[in-house]
Amino acid sequence: MFERFTAGSRAVVVQAQQEARERHSLIGTEHLLLALLSAEAGPAADVLRRAGVDAAGVRAALDRLAPGSGRLGPEDAAALRSIGIELDEVLSRIEESFGPDALHAVPLPAHRGLRRGVRQRRTRFGPRARKVLELSLREAVRLRSSEIRPEHVLLGLLREGQGQAARILLDAGVTLEDLRRATLASLDDAA
Question: Can you name the CATH fold of 2-67+124-190?
Fold first, then answer.
């Protein structure tokens, strides 16, 4: 499948791997979304930016959604309060005991590579990100394209519609169907 990827699409995949390496062992849809906002993504990045999506906003959303970030929602706080637990007090005590960054994600340790002395982090595509890549191929075939461009990856991401990336887009007020139409229009303009 990767032989059909254009240089831009390959750059998106590499960028997604780099985005994930810092703190995750799996590449998720959120990493693909961040990579689609890079300059290498070309028209796909333009479509996202016109919709009001930028890398800083995506990263901020990821920080809010990260497990262990200490940012539970109001419903969580209310549920805990109903059983006598004050969330703010618990979080405050954790920070007092373990430091102000105790609730932040810790980078994963690097693994030894095949080459002697080389340390590298193992990252592989999570199930939803793999599905996005599969759907990008299906989108390219459906649109009768002989190659997979970054716009096809974006269409695959939108079609998957269940991962962190879709959640971030929806939370930002972006309509997936409107973004899909804009992406298709961008492909038509390029043809």
Answer: Double Clp-N motif (1.10.1780)
